[in-house]
Fold this sequence. Notes:
Elements: H1 2-24, H2 29-53, H3 70-75, H4 79-106, H5 109-116, H6 119-130, H7 137-156, H8 168-193
Helix pairs in contact: 4-8, 6-8
Amino acid sequence: MWLILAFVSAALLGLYDTSKKASLKDNAVLPVLLLNTIFSTFLTLPFLVDYTMGTSWFAGTIFDTAPYDLALLEDAGTAGNAHVLVVIKAFLVLSSWILGYFGLKHLPLTLVGPINATRPVLVLVGATLIFGEKLNLHQWIGVLLTILSVFLMSRSSKKESIDFKSNKWIWCLAGATLMGAISGLYDKFIMRSLNP
C-alpha cells in the first residue's frame, strides 16, 4: 500500500512541477508566485476559518482541530515570540519559493527535479550536525549516491551548455534547495518551541 502511495505522490509532484514550469512560460515569476499563493489561500481558507472560529465544519474528519485559544499563548507570555518564529518560517519558505521559481523558469525540468531531490539529503545532513541525529548505513549510502548523482549531472549538463559554476539560475536553484532544507530543519526547532 505504501509503495503505491509513494508512486502516486511522485506522479503528483511531477505534475505539479510540470504545471509550475508551464505557468512560468512567457510570464514573470513574481506574479505567478503571487497568484499561486492567493489560490492556495482560497483553497485552505475554509480550514483556517474553521480552526480560528471553532465552527466544527470538519468535525469527525482528518481536518478536525480544536479551536484556537490565543489566551493560552498569551498566558504563557510567548505570543510575541511565537509570531517571530512564524515570520522567520515565512521568510525561509518565501525565499526558497522565489529562488526556486526563477531557477525553474530558466532551467530544464530534467535538471531541476534531481537538484530539488537533494533537499532531503541536506535535511538529513543538517539533522546529524545540528540535532545530533544518527544515520544508519542505508541512509549514508543514499546521501553518497545523491552527492554522486549531482556531480554526474553537473558533468553531463555541460553538454547542454549549462555550467554549474557560472550559471546564475543553477545558483538560484541551489539557494532554493538550501533554503528549503533550512526550512525543514527549522520546522523541527519551531515544533519544539510551539504547540503544533
